[in-house]
Amino acid sequence: MKATNSKAYAKLVENGIQAVETVNELRNSDYLAKDIFVLAHSEDRTDRIADKANAKEIGLKEEGVIDSIANLFRSRGDELRAKIVSIGFTETEAEYYERELDKGKVLVIAVRSV
User: Fold this and answer.
1) Which of 2, 11, 65, 109 has its CA 20 to 30 A from that of 27?
2) Which residue has the higher pLDDT, 58 or 52?
């Protein structure tokens, strides 16, 4: 896994099975279940993996009202980048992760509770 800043931690994995394993590893370490998120390129895939892993999806609480509403009008790529930035990553990091999601990878993120 790669720490990109002091608050958020991210790992790109190849598939849903690896995402579930990574979520379990994080849950067994010092991350709280409420602070572990999964993100895939398609919303449906994100829903399925989050459900299977018992992880969260990046939503209104993390994004804020304005970004959540704006996402209704954004392309999926723009929406994904906005979600990643809302968790605490830079625009450059978000662009990189979104490109990897385009390739079918899954992003697992853990955020330290403050």
Assistant:
1) 65
2) 52
